Amino acid sequence: MDVILDVLDTLVFDRLYAAVLPRHSATKIAHYFPSNGTELATLNESVNRYFALSPSKWATQSILPRDHLLRQSLSLFLITWLFGIILYFLSATLSFHFIYDKRAMKHPKFLRNQISMEIAQAVNAMPVMAALTVPFFLAEVRGYTKLYDFSSQAPFPLYTYLQYPIFIAFTDFGIYWIHRGEHHPKVYKHLHKPHHKWIISTPFASYAFHPVDGWAQSLSYHVFPILFPLQKVAYLGLFVFVTIWTVMIHDGEYALDSPVVNGSACHTIHHYYFNYNYGQFLTIWDRIGGSYRKPNRELFDREVRMTQNEIKKQVEEMEKLVKEVEGVDDRCYETQTEMKKTL
Fold first, then answer.
1. β-strands 230-231, 147-148: how paired?
2. Given 17, 36, 67, which residue is the final one in a domain?
3. Are 230 and 159 in contact (CB under 8 A)?
4. Which pLDDT band holds residue 339 (cuts at 50, 70, 90)?
5. 104 and 76, same structural domain?
6. At 26, is the pLDDT very low, low, confident or very high (cuts 50, 70, 90)?
7. Among 183, 35, 207, 185, which Cα is nearest to 133's?
8. What is the tally of structural domains in the chain?
9. Span 231-235, average pLDDT
10. Whole-number Å distance between alpha carbons of 210 and 197
């Protein structure tokens, strides 16, 4: 994140802070900040390890120097929030238009105005999730993690390749237990229930969380570089991968039938039947924890999965489990709306 911060400081934030809080400001708040004595020669050290980028002429023209805690916090919040929004809409929109089986929108458990509600919930949650994530990114920028720049700095040569499966294994373990804990009755109704509003999910449901729920399920990603070495470019790549993967497991396209990988079919079972398949990437912890449920064979047949008999079986079990887990079902389904229109 320090490299990204150097780049965006140079291209965007230096000029922004210089305009809003100029160095020679006569405003009342100026005396709360120490003089910005930063020298241009000391800036962009992180990004210059990768490629040459000269600081902008505004780099020292704000009362908030680049390394000020408040400025870094505000900048990291904006980066996390805005890039999260962009990646969410880009990946979810592409998935919805080119991958998602839109016949699912005719399922009796698809909600009225569901897509707009999914988007609204995701958009409302993202700034809060971004704010809660800022302390971890501050730790990275200020050197409190084990992130490193180049493969030559890895603990040993093979680690360049091992960091990826280690990251997946560690984060999947953490997410499994956090996610399973959120299904405890005393936690579920306050925190995780908003995400289970979408029994028949779309790609736009991928980040339609209660903000604390979404943040909690991301904790493993941020704890990993505190405990384990991780190359910086690999870290950024893995975050993009995690975002896209989260969209993919909500895309309703059951291309992967694997006993090991927790793909879209496994996660669909979780949304259908609540108390199964808590893992994010793998099925191993569900198998060990006794919560694995193999996806129905019918899901992998595009014709069979939308037949009346199959949907009827799904709905019967769904309604039983909704009653067990939530008590009263307060969702407003599209089919209920259509029925009212015909009366």
1. parallel
2. 67
3. no
4. very low
5. yes
6. low
7. 207
8. 2
9. 96
10. 11
d(CA 153, CA 169): 22
Residue in this structure with the two tokens 């060990």, named with its chain if needed:
288
pLDDT tens digit sequence for 108-127: 999 999 999 999 999 999 99
| H helical segments located in the chain | 2-8, 14-20, 45-48, 69-98, 114-141, 159-182, 185-187, 211-216, 219-227, 232-248, 264-273, 284-289, 308-326, 334-342
Average pLDDT, the chain: 91
Residue 122 makes CB contacts below 8 A (sequence gap 6+) with 88, 204, 205, 206, 207, 208, 209
Which of residues 67, 88, 109 is at a domain's end?
67
Amino acid at position 319, single letter: E
Torsion of CA 69, 70, 72, 73, to 10 degrees: 110
| Phi-psi map region of 252: left, alpha, beta (phi>0 left; psi -120 to 50 alpha) | left
